[in-house]
Amino acid sequence: MRNAVVTFWRSILVLCIAQFIAGCTTFKPTLYQPSINGGYGYSDQRIDPGEYRITVSGNAATSAKTLWNQLLFRAAEITLNTGHAYFVVAPNAVGDLVNIKPAFLMPQFGLGPGAGFGVRMPLVQYEGYPVGVEPSRQLVATATITVSDRKQRGMDGTFDAKAVENRLKSKIF
Hints:
With 173 residues, the chain is an alpha+beta fold. It has helices at 2-25, 64-81, 161-172, and strands at 41-48, 51-58, 86-89, 94-102, 110-111, 121-122, 125-126, 129-130, 135-148, 158-160. It contains 3 helices and 10 strands, in the order αββαββββββββα.
């Protein structure tokens, strides 16, 4: 009977470790998708006829380059869906790193007050965070675009929507 109990608890421990490792290895960049309830992805808002604000947010595994590609791809989609050929990105486009906070907490071991239920001074730290505390970051890029039927000569930030879509389609999907 004792061997069966030990074997059971060992199996549970192995299963928990396997799930933890699988969870760590499946952390992937944010896919190109609409943002649902403020989650990761893109959202857009029509400001005026022919003018749109696009926001794209990604998780910590999403590079800034991927985020900007997704933003330009969304701008091309909006432009083509509204029957236009070109879009101009306003010079106020920005990218920010926001929401740095612990994403999840795991039991800590160390010295100090609360050692039984959590610790103030963990024995092991990685990049300033106690082991088991994962920093969370969210990259956000925002741009305002104006759609147009013709190329705006001499204006920086003018893009051919079809060319952008063709160039980025393989990188986005």
